Amino acid sequence: MSEPISDPTSTPDWSLGKCLQWSAGLLAIAAAGIHFGVMGEHAGVSWSHGLFFAFSAWLQLAFAGWILWRPTRSAAIFGVVLNAAIIAVWIVSRAAGIPIGGDGSPEAFGFSDTLCALFEFGAIAACIGLLSPSVAASRISRLVGVIGVSIIGVVAVSLATAAFTPTFVDTQGDGHDHAASANGAGHAHGGATVAAPVATNADGFPLFGTTPCEKAGPPASKGQVLDAEGHDHRGPYAQELLTPAERQSLVAEQEQARAVAIKYPTVAT
User: Could you tell me which residues are beta bridge partners of residue 15?
Assistant: First the structure.
């Protein structure tokens, strides 16, 4: 059984090894979170893609638990090998493509995958530091250690969370688009877009999703946007501002309706 990398101490100082231990664990957890986040999307491409991301995420969580619970040399070596292997697969998928479960075309670098790789590089660096007895045994202030580890944890969690927020994803993209192709057999990489037919209402007005009703959410059925009877209830026409005269007329009509409702309460109900 491997011996712990650094012995516990009763002094108020921390060893640098403890900071590296926690940094490696937190970065591995953040990387695993990203892998879990994109697992479903890749499983939609092929079962092998989904299995790889699930396997990677669970192994990274296992490593994080191991290095945090018992920071041995074996745990540090496992962390280096695991994260280096995942990074190698990532680089190959971007540089040459991996012809397993897809068309094998290279994927573009995106924010979430690059961020995940940076977390993994950080975990590798922390593990290498743990493997150096002189580095791991170096003493630092407990306050400095706690603040440093806290900053790493907060930044890692914040960036990993931001990578999956709709606004950020829409702006930055995630580096790959696994949309189904026209023949239903492949998937597009590198942010490629697949042309889709533009729906129109009964009068031929295109529905681009920019009108208030369309923005409210997806239609409940095709009949809401493609009604053969001409009943288009999804706001197929963009709103137009009223003219000053029309606004005055609307105000007068509302006042009349309000007066009738006050005079005849039963009418309002």
Answer: 139
Q: How far apart are CA 116 and CA 162, in angstroms?
A: 12
pTM of structure:
0.57
pLDDT value of residue 83: 96
pLDDT band, very low/low/confident/very high, at 190 (cuts 50, 70, 90): very low
Sketch the domain layout of the chain as residue ranges. Answer: 14-180, 197-238, 244-269
Angstrom distance (rounded) from CA 77 to CA 3: 13
Please list, in sequence order, all residues whose beta carbon lies within 8 angstroms of the beta carbon of residue 86, skipping any fewer than 6 positions away. 31, 56, 60, 120
Q: Cβ(52)–Cβ(37) under 8 Å?
A: no
Q: Please identify which residue in the block is written with the tokens 């501002």.
A: 241
48 phi and psi, to 5 degrees? -70, -40
Q: How many CA atoms within 13 Å lie on the side-chain side of 6? A: 26
- pLDDT tens figures, 205-261: 555 566 666 666 665 555 555 555 555 555 555 566 778 888 889 989 999 888 888
> Which tens digits make up the pLDDT trace of 64-114?
999 999 889 999 999 999 999 999 999 998 888 877 766 677 888 888 889
> With 0-12 CB in 10 A as exposed, 13-18 as middle and 19+ as buried, what is 176?
buried
Cα 92 to Cα 146: distance, rounded to the nearest angstrom: 37
